[in-house]
Amino acid sequence: MDTQLETIAQAKSKLLDLTFQFGPKLLAATLILAAGVIVGRWVGGMLERMLRSPDPVIAVSALADSSINLCARPWVKVPDYAPASGEIKQAMVEAFRAHGISIPFPQRDVRLLERAA
Predict the structure, then answer these.
(1) Whole-model pTM?
(2) pLDDT in tens, 7-64
(3) Cβ–Cβ contacts within 10 Å for residue 65, how many?
């Protein structure tokens, strides 16, 4: 057990877990475009804190109540872990906007039914 803890503590990179939520009426093509934007930014070296190897994981992570969740799990250096999260999210939101991809605010419709008197 001590060896496993030492190995984790000595790790030079860490997997960062990012989730982007898209409206449920989103076309599959737009979701694919969003994933492509993430990959394009990574391959192009535009996300400086993302390591080029190993490859990031990009997948649909959930079909939630009011969204389709796309996860991006890039590897980053351990010292970059905290700042990388915000920087990568900001860069991705700007890239999504540049490609016309919007991230809607969560919404819930509530119906109030009247009771018969």
Answers:
(1) 0.65
(2) 656 778 888 888 888 776 666 667 777 777 777 766 666 677 788 788 888 888 888 7
(3) 8
What amino acid occupies position 26? Answer: L
> What phi and psi values does residue 17 have, to the nearest 5 degrees?
-105, 110
Find the helix or strand (DSSP H, E) in which 6 lies.
helix 2-9
DSSP string, 63-85: E-SS-EEEEEE-EEEGGGHHHHH
State which amino acid sits at residue 29: A
User: Could you tell me the domains of the chain?
Assistant: 12-98 (3.30.70.100)
CA atoms within 13 A on the CB side of 93: 11
Rounded to whole angstroms, the Cα distance separating 66 from 64 reads 6
Neighbours of 75 (CB within 10 A): 19
